[in-house]
Amino acid sequence: MEKEPRDWKMIIGIGILLVVFAIVGGSFWKMVGKQAELVAEQEKKEEEEAITAIYIEAGETLKQPVFVDTKTETVFTAKVPEDGIYNKKGTLIEGDVLEVGDVVKVYGDGIMTLSLPGNYPGVTKMKRVRRASLEETEKYKKMIEELMDSAVAE
Question: DSSP class of residue 71?
Fold first, then answer.
């Protein structure tokens, strides 16, 4: 029996091909990892910039929907985005509407108009976080009533 000579060119070619595939694959996964990091950073930034607000209806006869920033107690109006409201798990609830006392996170471009109440036209997403307690809701209702009374008096 004769031994067949090894084809070194073929072995070296396959070895080089395997090294090239390893380099390309490694670069691809590194790029995917960086992209995932960028997305996570963007989501973290959006979360930090989101306004936590309580939904209240102002006025006796003409109920005007307003929000009160729970951190700064700034009163503002905003439209619910067309795609709807998300729940605290991040699931979109079709046809959902806000009820007085809903605490929401309002995401957007951060630009608020200088009016009374302020208007937040750049809202991109709203997420219901929880229901406010009756005491918390009444506190903000009273605050808005006082604000409306002082605005009418001027």
Answer: T
Contact 128, 102 (CB under 8 A): yes
Angle at CA of residue 97, ends 93 and 100, nearest 5°:
130
CA atoms within 13 A on the CB side of 52: 10
Cα radius of gyration rounded to whole Å, the chain: 28
Phi/psi of residue 118, each to 5°?
A: -60, 160
Measured CA angle at 89 (ends 67, 45), to 5 deg = 65
Question: pLDDT tens for residues 65-108?
Answer: 889 988 888 888 888 888 888 888 888 876 667 888 899 999 98
Q: How far is CA 101 from the centre of its chain?
A: 20
Report which DSSP code applies to 122.
T
Cβ-based neighbour number of residue 51 at 10 Å? 22
DSSP at 90: S
For the question of whether the overall pTM of this predicted structure is more than 0.70, the answer is: no
Judged by DSSP in three states, 2 sits in: coil
Query: Could you give the CA distance from residue 99 to residue 64 in angstroms, rounded to a whole number?
Result: 12
